[in-house]
Amino acid sequence: MSFENYDWSDVVPIEQDDGPDPLAQIAYDPEYSKAMGYFRALAQKNEHSERALTLTEKIIEHNPAHYTIWHYRQQILFSLNKDLYEELDFIRNQVEQNPKNYQLWHHRQVIVEKLKDCSLESSFTEEVLNDDSKNYHAWTYRQWVIRTFNLWDNELSFVEKLLEKDIRNNSAWNQRYFAIFYNPTKPSEEFLEQEVQYGITKIKLAPNNISPWNYVKGVIAKSKLKIDVLEELCKTLYQQGIISPHALGCLVDIYEDRAKCGSINEKELGIQVFPYIMKRDT
């Protein structure tokens, strides 16, 4: 039943009070103002009913970022013992229209937490990320699902599919790092060495893409390896005529580390490389 079909004769709407002399009064849509008037009246008496639930849907249509309405909707859903799987369908439809609405994603988190069932969430977030692989809210929510329900096992394969599709997807690189280093099962040194080699193969495909460079450096920082392992790669790229500012910058880091250990020759090499970085880092 729609909002208009319910009997509201017993409800006296409470209008918004902006004070006697508002500085910049917002010109709300009349339908939205009407619905909010009913909401204030129902919320004042803490009414949890079917018409109140329908009212929240009406308001969400106008203002999907209204946190208070989402919270009120949750209270009604739980109070009426509504089918929360139907609510997940409702949320799915809302996400299609507003995929980057924080309140909407938080609402889904509350519902899934109440259900204690994450069986739909991996596929749901995968669909959203297939449409927009850099949707921050979808990634944040997916990480919450993984941590809460211990769904670490298949995450690397999911990320790999995204990187095969777009090697420059920085969000996927971040997720790969999350899947390895936030996992309660700590990676072995052998695994980390393999990850560095994995990153190197991706760097070779797109030497000027900063994402795999940052990823590999992050893995090295978490391992017993030193940044020297990238020296051969950097030199090979340069010899091939590929002037990557990230490779040159990496060489400077390598030479700087060695210079700190007293190598004057390495210090000079770093000084020689630096001007090339300034020319290429545009």
How would you portray this structure in words?
- The protein starts with 29 loop residues before the first helix and ends with a helix.
- Mean pLDDT is 90; it is low at 274-278.
- The chain is mainly alpha-helical.
- It has helices spanning 30-44, 50-62, 67-79, 84-97, 102-115, 121-131, 136-149, 155-165, 170-181, 189-205, 210-222, 231-239, 245-260, 264-280.
- It contains 14 helices and no strands.
- α5 (102-115) packs parallel to α7 (136-149), α6 (121-131) packs antiparallel against α7 and α13 runs antiparallel to α14.
**Helical amount:** 55-70%
- Which spans have pLDDT < 50 for at least 5 consecutive residues? 274-278
Q: What value does the average pLDDT take?
A: 90
Q: How many β-strand runs?
A: 0
Strand-residue proportion: under 5%
First CA to last CA: what distance? 59 Å
Give the overall form: elongated
Tell me the major beta sheet.
none
The number of helical runs is 14
